[in-house]
Design brief:
The protein is an alpha/beta fold. It is built from eight helices and eleven strands. It folds into two domains: about 120 residues, Response regulator (Rossmann fold, 3-Layer(aba) Sandwich); about 100 residues, Winged helix-like DNA-binding domain superfamily/Winged helix DNA-binding domain (Arc Repressor Mutant, subunit A, Orthogonal Bundle). Strand 4, helix 4 and strand 5 form a beta-alpha-beta unit. The longest helix has 18 residues.
């Protein structure tokens, strides 16, 4: 479920908007000011922020700056101010969109869905070192040149990239690739596919630096 943080100090807006968006299938959390919002950003993962520019405690620009420092969560500003300065400042800070109060809930919903669609497209790119995967297109490039993987090799690579820095046991890898294989994948088959993947992505497959073997434990990509 898509999780949204609503940063707004008007209780009636928070209540009405939260009820509406929950009815549309979103999970809503709220904060009344800058300090509380930043604290929640440090502890939780959100898919989108709805941030009022004018807050009794701090301001929405500071919340947006904090969000940008922590990651790339999309931000839509809610503003009662229609002055050009506030709009330009918000967009220059990296906000994805803005909407002026008073607004119709369905208009805001449309903006939310549009921003989330753009965000999901930008998040379709996974990169690590010299490897880049576009999950929307299903392509893999090494140093800018496309390489071609089998379906199982591609799935195996995604498992590693989605678990960067984590040691993956052979049993865990077997569980991850079983569904797509269409047949039983045994331990020997896994060894073969890891070798094939290394042959295609490593500069020196005999001394791999991308998919590292952690002796006695499994494999790992990244630190």
């Amino acid at each position: 479920m898509t999780k949204i943080l609503l940063v707004e100090d008007d209780a009636s807006i928070v209540n009405n908007l939260s009820e509406y968006l929950r009815g549309e299938g979103f999970e809503i959390d709220s904060a009344t000011g800058q300090k509380q919002a930043v604290s929640k950003l440090e502890k939780n993962k959100y898919d989108l922020l709805l941030v009022d520019i004018s807050l009794k405690d701090g301001n929405g620009f500071a919340v947006c700056a904090a969000a940008r420092a922590m990651g790339d969560t999309p931000v839509i500003f809610l503003t009662a101010s229609s002055d050009e300065y506030s709009v330009i400042t918000g967009l220059d800070m990296g906000a994805d969109d803005y909407i002026s109060k008073p607004f119709r809930p369905r208009e805001l919903l449309s903006r939310i869905k549009s921003v989330l669609r753009r965000s999901s497209k930008s998040n379709s790119i996974i990169e690590h070192d010299f490897i880049k995967v576009d999950t929307a297109k299903g392509t893999v490039t090494k140093n800018g040149t496309e390489i071609f993987l089998s379906a199982l090799e591609y799935r195996l690579l995604l498992v590693f990239l989605n678990n960067k820095g984590i040691i993956l046991s052979r049993n865990r890898l077997l569980e991850e690739i079983y569904d797509i294989a269409g047949e039983y994948v045994n331990d020997n088959t896994l060894t073969v596919y890891i070798k094939r993947l290394r042959d295609k992505i490593e500069d020196d497959p005999q001394n791999p630096t991308f998919i590292k073997t952690v002796r006695g434990l499994g494999y790992k990509v990244g630190d």
